[in-house]
Amino acid sequence: MLQVYLLTRLVHKVTQTISVDIPPSLRYTSPVLVEITPNIFLVEGEKRGQFPFSHSILIHDEVTVLIDTGCGIERLRRLKEQYPPQLIINSHAHPDHIPGNWLFTGLPLLVPRQSFHYTGRIDNVSERFTESKDLARLWRHYVRENTGFRDALPTDHYDEGHHFQFGSVELVTIHSPGHTRDSYCFLEPRQEILFSFDMDLSPFGPWYGHPESDIDQFEASIKRVRSLKPRVVVSSHMGIITDSIDERFEAYQAVVAQRDARILEFLSQERSLEEMVDAPLVYNDYPFAQELLRQWDRNMVKKHLHRLKQRDLVEKTEKGYARTSIKL
Protein backbone atom coordinates (compact mmCIF):
# COMPACT_ATOMS: atom_id res chain seq x y z
CA MET A 1 0.00 0.00 0.00
CA LEU A 2 1.46 3.33 -1.02
CA GLN A 3 1.88 5.83 1.75
CA VAL A 4 -0.28 8.89 1.11
CA TYR A 5 2.56 11.35 1.24
CA LEU A 6 4.52 9.32 -1.33
CA LEU A 7 1.47 8.99 -3.57
CA THR A 8 0.78 12.69 -3.28
CA ARG A 9 4.32 13.60 -4.21
CA LEU A 10 4.37 11.16 -7.10
CA VAL A 11 1.10 12.38 -8.58
CA HIS A 12 2.07 16.02 -8.04
CA LYS A 13 5.44 15.51 -9.73
CA VAL A 14 3.99 13.78 -12.76
CA THR A 15 1.30 16.42 -13.34
CA GLN A 16 2.89 19.54 -11.93
CA THR A 17 2.71 21.37 -15.28
CA ILE A 18 -1.10 21.14 -15.42
CA SER A 19 -2.99 24.27 -14.42
CA VAL A 20 -6.46 23.56 -13.05
CA ASP A 21 -7.43 26.79 -11.30
CA ILE A 22 -11.20 27.03 -10.90
CA PRO A 23 -12.43 30.52 -11.73
CA PRO A 24 -14.31 32.08 -8.79
CA SER A 25 -17.19 32.90 -11.16
CA LEU A 26 -17.82 29.20 -11.65
CA ARG A 27 -18.06 28.39 -7.98
CA TYR A 28 -21.73 29.27 -7.77
CA THR A 29 -22.90 29.67 -11.36
CA SER A 30 -21.73 26.38 -12.87
CA PRO A 31 -24.57 23.91 -13.48
CA VAL A 32 -22.25 21.09 -12.38
CA LEU A 33 -19.95 22.38 -9.61
CA VAL A 34 -21.19 23.51 -6.21
CA GLU A 35 -18.66 24.89 -3.75
CA ILE A 36 -18.48 23.20 -0.35
CA THR A 37 -15.26 24.97 0.63
CA PRO A 38 -12.79 26.92 -1.56
CA ASN A 39 -10.97 23.63 -2.24
CA ILE A 40 -13.84 21.11 -2.23
CA PHE A 41 -16.68 20.95 -4.75
CA LEU A 42 -19.75 18.79 -5.28
CA VAL A 43 -19.98 17.62 -8.89
CA GLU A 44 -23.72 17.32 -9.37
CA GLY A 45 -24.83 14.03 -10.84
CA GLU A 46 -27.30 13.65 -13.65
CA LYS A 47 -30.92 13.25 -12.51
CA ARG A 48 -29.97 15.34 -9.45
CA GLY A 49 -27.72 12.51 -8.32
CA GLN A 50 -30.50 9.93 -8.15
CA PHE A 51 -29.80 6.28 -9.03
CA PRO A 52 -28.31 5.14 -11.40
CA PHE A 53 -26.22 8.31 -10.96
CA SER A 54 -24.57 9.86 -7.92
CA HIS A 55 -22.81 13.08 -7.01
CA SER A 56 -19.02 13.13 -7.26
CA ILE A 57 -16.54 15.17 -5.21
CA LEU A 58 -13.77 17.31 -6.71
CA ILE A 59 -10.88 18.37 -4.47
CA HIS A 60 -8.71 21.11 -5.95
CA ASP A 61 -5.68 21.59 -3.74
CA GLU A 62 -2.00 20.75 -4.09
CA VAL A 63 -3.37 17.59 -5.66
CA THR A 64 -6.59 17.54 -7.70
CA VAL A 65 -8.70 14.53 -6.77
CA LEU A 66 -12.00 13.11 -8.02
CA ILE A 67 -13.96 10.92 -5.61
CA ASP A 68 -16.45 8.61 -7.35
CA THR A 69 -17.23 8.69 -11.06
CA GLY A 70 -21.00 8.21 -11.16
CA CYS A 71 -22.12 11.76 -12.00
CA GLY A 72 -22.55 10.95 -15.70
CA ILE A 73 -20.12 10.22 -18.53
CA GLU A 74 -20.57 13.54 -20.35
CA ARG A 75 -20.13 15.49 -17.13
CA LEU A 76 -16.95 13.56 -16.46
CA ARG A 77 -15.64 14.34 -19.95
CA ARG A 78 -16.24 18.04 -19.32
CA LEU A 79 -14.60 17.83 -15.91
CA LYS A 80 -11.59 16.02 -17.34
CA GLU A 81 -11.06 18.78 -19.91
CA GLN A 82 -11.56 21.74 -17.58
CA TYR A 83 -10.21 20.50 -14.24
CA PRO A 84 -8.21 17.32 -14.97
CA PRO A 85 -7.84 15.19 -11.84
CA GLN A 86 -4.56 13.62 -10.84
CA LEU A 87 -6.02 10.89 -8.65
CA ILE A 88 -9.31 8.93 -8.59
CA ILE A 89 -10.79 7.44 -5.41
CA ASN A 90 -13.88 5.24 -5.13
CA SER A 91 -15.95 5.18 -1.93
CA HIS A 92 -17.24 1.66 -2.65
CA ALA A 93 -17.89 -0.64 -5.60
CA HIS A 94 -21.53 0.13 -6.43
CA PRO A 95 -22.09 0.76 -10.16
CA ASP A 96 -23.45 4.29 -9.62
CA HIS A 97 -20.11 5.27 -8.05
CA ILE A 98 -17.51 3.71 -10.35
CA PRO A 99 -18.81 3.63 -13.96
CA GLY A 100 -16.59 6.41 -15.31
CA ASN A 101 -13.28 5.13 -13.91
CA TRP A 102 -12.27 4.07 -17.42
CA LEU A 103 -12.18 7.70 -18.57
CA PHE A 104 -9.14 8.22 -16.34
CA THR A 105 -7.03 5.25 -17.40
CA GLY A 106 -3.41 5.89 -16.54
CA LEU A 107 -4.17 7.73 -13.30
CA PRO A 108 -3.86 6.18 -9.84
CA LEU A 109 -7.22 4.63 -8.88
CA LEU A 110 -7.68 3.86 -5.17
CA VAL A 111 -10.54 1.70 -3.91
CA PRO A 112 -11.43 0.08 -0.56
CA ARG A 113 -9.28 -2.89 0.38
CA GLN A 114 -12.45 -4.98 0.80
CA SER A 115 -13.32 -4.64 -2.91
CA PHE A 116 -9.89 -4.33 -4.54
CA HIS A 117 -10.30 -7.65 -6.38
CA TYR A 118 -13.84 -6.84 -7.56
CA THR A 119 -13.87 -3.18 -8.50
CA GLY A 120 -13.58 -2.53 -12.20
CA ARG A 121 -14.54 -5.97 -13.46
CA ILE A 122 -18.22 -5.93 -14.35
CA ASP A 123 -18.50 -9.73 -14.41
CA ASN A 124 -17.07 -10.02 -10.90
CA VAL A 125 -19.15 -7.15 -9.52
CA SER A 126 -22.39 -8.49 -11.05
CA GLU A 127 -21.81 -11.92 -9.54
CA ARG A 128 -20.97 -10.40 -6.17
CA PHE A 129 -24.15 -8.32 -6.01
CA THR A 130 -26.65 -10.90 -7.38
CA GLU A 131 -27.64 -14.45 -6.55
CA SER A 132 -27.99 -16.13 -9.95
CA LYS A 133 -26.48 -16.05 -13.43
CA ASP A 134 -29.75 -14.71 -14.85
CA LEU A 135 -29.85 -11.82 -12.38
CA ALA A 136 -26.16 -11.13 -12.96
CA ARG A 137 -26.82 -10.91 -16.70
CA LEU A 138 -29.75 -8.53 -16.14
CA TRP A 139 -27.61 -6.46 -13.76
CA ARG A 140 -24.77 -6.15 -16.31
CA HIS A 141 -27.17 -5.12 -19.05
CA TYR A 142 -28.85 -2.49 -16.90
CA VAL A 143 -25.56 -1.06 -15.66
CA ARG A 144 -23.96 -0.86 -19.10
CA GLU A 145 -27.03 0.69 -20.71
CA ASN A 146 -27.70 3.25 -17.99
CA THR A 147 -24.31 4.26 -16.59
CA GLY A 148 -21.77 3.85 -19.38
CA PHE A 149 -19.76 1.41 -17.26
CA ARG A 150 -16.58 -0.05 -18.76
CA ASP A 151 -13.99 -2.16 -17.00
CA ALA A 152 -11.16 -0.23 -15.30
CA LEU A 153 -8.90 -1.89 -12.78
CA PRO A 154 -7.77 -0.19 -9.56
CA THR A 155 -4.11 0.47 -8.94
CA ASP A 156 -4.11 0.46 -5.14
CA HIS A 157 -6.36 0.40 -2.07
CA TYR A 158 -7.02 2.06 1.26
CA ASP A 159 -8.38 0.79 4.56
CA GLU A 160 -9.86 1.95 7.87
CA GLY A 161 -8.16 5.00 9.35
CA HIS A 162 -6.22 5.96 6.23
CA HIS A 163 -5.15 9.62 6.09
CA PHE A 164 -5.19 11.36 2.72
CA GLN A 165 -3.34 14.69 2.68
CA PHE A 166 -3.96 16.71 -0.48
CA GLY A 167 -2.61 20.04 0.79
CA SER A 168 -4.94 21.96 3.07
CA VAL A 169 -7.58 19.25 2.62
CA GLU A 170 -7.21 16.14 4.76
CA LEU A 171 -9.49 13.11 4.59
CA VAL A 172 -9.69 10.27 7.09
CA THR A 173 -11.35 7.05 5.95
CA ILE A 174 -14.02 5.39 8.11
CA HIS A 175 -15.04 1.83 7.26
CA SER A 176 -18.84 1.87 7.43
CA PRO A 177 -20.16 -1.58 6.44
CA GLY A 178 -23.81 -2.49 6.21
CA HIS A 179 -24.80 -1.02 2.86
CA THR A 180 -22.01 -3.11 1.34
CA ARG A 181 -19.03 -4.71 3.02
CA ASP A 182 -16.70 -2.16 1.38
CA SER A 183 -18.69 0.99 2.21
CA TYR A 184 -16.72 3.94 3.61
CA CYS A 185 -17.33 7.45 4.83
CA PHE A 186 -14.62 10.13 4.70
CA LEU A 187 -14.11 12.85 7.30
CA GLU A 188 -12.41 16.21 6.76
CA PRO A 189 -11.60 16.71 10.46
CA ARG A 190 -10.48 20.34 10.46
CA GLN A 191 -13.59 21.52 8.65
CA GLU A 192 -15.89 18.90 10.23
CA ILE A 193 -17.21 17.73 6.89
CA LEU A 194 -18.49 14.15 6.61
CA PHE A 195 -18.68 12.59 3.15
CA SER A 196 -21.28 9.95 3.88
CA PHE A 197 -21.68 8.65 0.31
CA ASP A 198 -24.41 5.97 0.33
CA MET A 199 -25.25 6.53 3.96
CA ASP A 200 -27.24 9.12 2.12
CA LEU A 201 -29.77 10.42 4.71
CA SER A 202 -32.52 10.10 2.12
CA PRO A 203 -36.20 9.74 3.09
CA PHE A 204 -36.06 6.20 1.66
CA GLY A 205 -33.75 5.20 4.48
CA PRO A 206 -30.86 2.73 4.58
CA TRP A 207 -30.46 0.37 1.64
CA TYR A 208 -29.20 -3.16 2.35
CA GLY A 209 -30.41 -5.25 -0.57
CA HIS A 210 -27.40 -7.44 -1.32
CA PRO A 211 -26.61 -10.81 0.23
CA GLU A 212 -23.56 -9.23 1.91
CA SER A 213 -25.52 -6.24 3.26
CA ASP A 214 -26.22 -6.26 6.99
CA ILE A 215 -28.80 -4.24 8.93
CA ASP A 216 -27.04 -4.46 12.28
CA GLN A 217 -23.73 -3.37 10.78
CA PHE A 218 -25.47 -0.50 9.00
CA GLU A 219 -27.05 0.72 12.23
CA ALA A 220 -23.69 0.51 14.01
CA SER A 221 -22.06 2.48 11.19
CA ILE A 222 -24.74 5.18 11.40
CA LYS A 223 -24.23 5.45 15.15
CA ARG A 224 -20.46 5.73 14.72
CA VAL A 225 -20.41 8.54 12.16
CA ARG A 226 -23.32 10.34 13.80
CA SER A 227 -21.26 10.53 17.00
CA LEU A 228 -18.67 12.59 15.11
CA LYS A 229 -21.15 15.50 15.10
CA PRO A 230 -20.23 16.77 11.63
CA ARG A 231 -20.94 20.39 10.74
CA VAL A 232 -21.64 19.45 7.09
CA VAL A 233 -22.67 16.15 5.52
CA VAL A 234 -22.16 15.49 1.82
CA SER A 235 -24.37 12.66 0.56
CA SER A 236 -23.97 10.92 -2.79
CA HIS A 237 -27.67 11.24 -3.54
CA MET A 238 -28.94 14.10 -1.36
CA GLY A 239 -26.07 16.53 -1.89
CA ILE A 240 -24.85 19.04 0.70
CA ILE A 241 -26.63 18.97 4.07
CA THR A 242 -25.95 21.73 6.58
CA ASP A 243 -29.02 21.93 8.80
CA SER A 244 -30.68 19.57 11.32
CA ILE A 245 -27.95 17.00 10.70
CA ASP A 246 -28.45 15.04 13.91
CA GLU A 247 -32.19 14.94 13.31
CA ARG A 248 -31.58 13.74 9.76
CA PHE A 249 -29.45 10.87 11.06
CA GLU A 250 -32.15 9.97 13.59
CA ALA A 251 -34.91 9.99 10.97
CA TYR A 252 -32.76 7.98 8.56
CA GLN A 253 -32.05 5.22 11.06
CA ALA A 254 -35.66 5.22 12.29
CA VAL A 255 -36.75 3.93 8.88
CA VAL A 256 -35.33 0.53 9.83
CA ALA A 257 -37.69 0.20 12.81
CA GLN A 258 -40.56 1.51 10.67
CA ARG A 259 -39.93 -1.32 8.20
CA ASP A 260 -39.94 -3.82 11.07
CA ALA A 261 -43.32 -2.45 12.16
CA ARG A 262 -44.70 -2.53 8.62
CA ILE A 263 -43.69 -6.16 8.19
CA LEU A 264 -45.17 -7.13 11.55
CA GLU A 265 -48.44 -5.45 10.64
CA PHE A 266 -48.52 -7.27 7.29
CA LEU A 267 -47.91 -10.55 9.11
CA SER A 268 -51.03 -10.21 11.24
CA GLN A 269 -52.06 -13.11 9.02
CA GLU A 270 -49.88 -15.79 7.49
CA ARG A 271 -48.04 -14.59 4.36
CA SER A 272 -45.63 -16.03 1.86
CA LEU A 273 -42.38 -14.24 1.08
CA GLU A 274 -43.64 -13.50 -2.44
CA GLU A 275 -46.77 -11.88 -1.05
CA MET A 276 -44.52 -9.58 0.95
CA VAL A 277 -42.50 -8.74 -2.16
CA ASP A 278 -45.70 -8.12 -4.13
CA ALA A 279 -46.94 -5.68 -1.47
CA PRO A 280 -44.10 -4.31 -1.48
CA LEU A 281 -42.90 -3.59 2.05
CA VAL A 282 -39.57 -1.78 1.54
CA TYR A 283 -39.80 -0.21 -1.90
CA ASN A 284 -42.98 1.71 -2.65
CA ASP A 285 -43.09 0.27 -6.16
CA TYR A 286 -40.85 -1.16 -8.88
CA PRO A 287 -40.63 1.57 -11.54
CA PHE A 288 -37.65 0.14 -13.46
CA ALA A 289 -35.61 -3.08 -13.74
CA GLN A 290 -38.41 -4.89 -11.92
CA GLU A 291 -36.65 -8.22 -11.52
CA LEU A 292 -33.67 -6.54 -9.89
CA LEU A 293 -35.78 -4.30 -7.66
CA ARG A 294 -37.93 -7.22 -6.58
CA GLN A 295 -34.85 -9.23 -5.66
CA TRP A 296 -33.40 -6.33 -3.65
CA ASP A 297 -36.73 -5.89 -1.86
CA ARG A 298 -36.87 -9.64 -1.23
CA ASN A 299 -33.37 -9.58 0.26
CA MET A 300 -34.18 -6.67 2.56
CA VAL A 301 -37.43 -8.26 3.73
CA LYS A 302 -35.58 -11.51 4.46
CA LYS A 303 -33.05 -9.63 6.59
CA HIS A 304 -35.89 -8.06 8.59
CA LEU A 305 -37.58 -11.44 8.98
CA HIS A 306 -34.35 -12.90 10.31
CA ARG A 307 -34.06 -10.12 12.89
CA LEU A 308 -37.71 -10.40 13.90
CA LYS A 309 -37.46 -14.18 14.20
CA GLN A 310 -34.41 -13.80 16.46
CA ARG A 311 -36.54 -11.54 18.68
CA ASP A 312 -39.36 -14.11 18.71
CA LEU A 313 -41.68 -11.65 16.99
CA VAL A 314 -42.09 -13.74 13.81
CA GLU A 315 -42.33 -17.47 13.26
CA LYS A 316 -41.83 -19.64 10.19
CA THR A 317 -45.00 -21.32 8.95
CA GLU A 318 -45.89 -23.83 6.26
CA LYS A 319 -46.89 -21.02 3.91
CA GLY A 320 -44.20 -18.57 4.88
CA TYR A 321 -44.25 -16.35 7.96
CA ALA A 322 -46.66 -15.04 10.58
CA ARG A 323 -46.48 -12.77 13.55
CA THR A 324 -45.86 -14.72 16.75
CA SER A 325 -49.21 -14.75 18.50
CA ILE A 326 -47.73 -15.29 21.96
CA LYS A 327 -46.03 -11.89 21.71
CA LEU A 328 -49.15 -9.95 20.75
Structure report:
There is one protein chain. The protein is of the alpha/beta class and 328 residues long. The protein has two domains: 4-253, 4-Layer Sandwich (Metallo-beta-lactamase, Chain A), CATH 3.60.15.10; 267-327. 33% of the residues lie in helices and 18% in strands. The chain has helices at residues 4-14, 26-29, 73-82, 122-129, 133-147, 215-226, 245-266, 273-278, 290-310, and strands at 33-37, 40-43, 56-60, 64-67, 87-89, 109-112, 156-158, 163-165, 170-175, 184-188, 193-197, 232-235, 239-241, 314-316, 321-323. The strands form three sheets. Strands 1-2-3-4-5-6-7 form a seven-stranded mixed sheet. It has a six-stranded mixed sheet with strand order 8-9-10-11-12-13. β9 and β10 form a beta hairpin. α6 (215-226) packs antiparallel against α7. The longest helix is centred in the last third of the chain and has 22 residues, at 245-266. It is globular. The termini are far apart. The model is unreliable at 1-31 (pLDDT under 50).
Task: Tell me briefly what this model is.
By secondary structure, the chain is an alpha/beta fold. The chain has helices at residues 4-14, 26-29, 73-82, 122-129, 133-147, 215-226, 245-266, 273-278, 290-310, and strands at 33-37, 40-43, 56-60, 64-67, 87-89, 109-112, 156-158, 163-165, 170-175, 184-188, 193-197, 232-235, 239-241, 314-316, 321-323. Helix content is 33%, strand content 18%.
